[in-house]
Task: structure prediction
Amino acid sequence: MNVVETKALGRRYGKRWALRDLDLTVAEHTVVGLVGPNGAGKSTLLHLVAGLIDPTEGSVNVLGAQPGSKGVLPDVAFVAQDSPLPKRPRVCEVVAMAAGMNVRWDADVVSKRLRELRVDESHRVGELSGGQRAQLALALALAKRPRLLLLDEPVASLDPLARRGFLQSLMAAVADGGMTVIFSTHLIDDLERTCDHLVVLGQGTLLLSGSLDEIVQGHAVIVGSPDRPLPSGSSVVGGYRSPSAHQHLVSVSAPVIDPAWQQLAPTLDEIVLAHLAVEPERRPVRRLEVV
Amino acid sequence: MIALRLDPGSGVSTYLQIVHQVRQAVQLGVLREGDQLPTVKEVVGALAINPNTVLKAYRELEHEGLAVGRPGVGTFITRTLTSPSPEEQTRLRAELGRWVDRATDAGLDIETMVGLLRSVVNQASGSAVA
Result:
């Protein structure tokens, strides 16, 4: 079953398209990483899926219904960038507030998590560290027992240790089963560890989408002399050229078997950066297959 | 029980790193028949990785006949690997020696040879699991 389905989805702010012509499907029980530079449309997409904004064109469907509609609201949890929580109230008051706003609420999730983090519930939210606040926001989202969890750059402002702790909590929650996660991030290392699928956005359009394995197997770094024709079935995404040798990052439909080209395994980092670096006018009309 | 670890810069996919580490632990005798592998939740909690990755690695180990999953209990090592016999190793070494001689005659330097070997090994291990 698809948890999210978008068709020709677009959203415009004034004259600027933040997102355009997006066809994307997200299968159940996957962890999807959303990457792209600032302004690529990541937050816009997450807000559209959460039902916090409406599309300008096209459609988005979440768990078989319109995002934000009564039927799906209890099943979707969204944590906005920097885990915005009111700073004045005490932790226990924020927990009680969140509990009161949700029809389904697993209080044990929050209390257990706060104990593990050694957070005193009588403290004010503003007194918590960045890592603790992010963990509190995650615990509140998980207490809904959501079928779809949306996180907008959850670890961007965290130090490495807090980031690790956050991802451990998130992955442990995924291990419990029944949840699909979409989260945006700038950190490709984190994606490699935590995601099944990757969606790369650039300037409001979909550049690359697929399972991590498909993406890595679908690319190669090849090195060879400039006068050689490219191996069959490969097309250049990026690379650099010197008079004596060309090094290309290519997308391939099958493993390259061409003695004229030395083949190296690309890292996910290289693949993502190469796709982001492609000039918009050079981009193919339709990209790699969708998730 | 072994502690799994990851090398993010290795370029080897996470699930393969787990498969390799378990296989190596069995080859070295660190893990023996009947030993339990860490549960998916334990690995996820320790390494902050996707549980599907751990499941995929354990499925691969089961597929190789190296481990067996018992639902609700865990995953257990089913056999002890033995490394190739000294005669076999000698034979492989001699074959490689002849190849190195031919490569030297063809004008390859050591780095090119190592690079070529690595790319062939990578390709073979890639297609073995694909």
Notes: Chain A touches chain B through 26 residues (CB under 8 Å). Residues 285-291 of chain A have pLDDT under 50 and may be disordered. The first strand of chain A starts at residue 2 and ends at 13. DSSP finds eight helices and 13 strands in chain A.
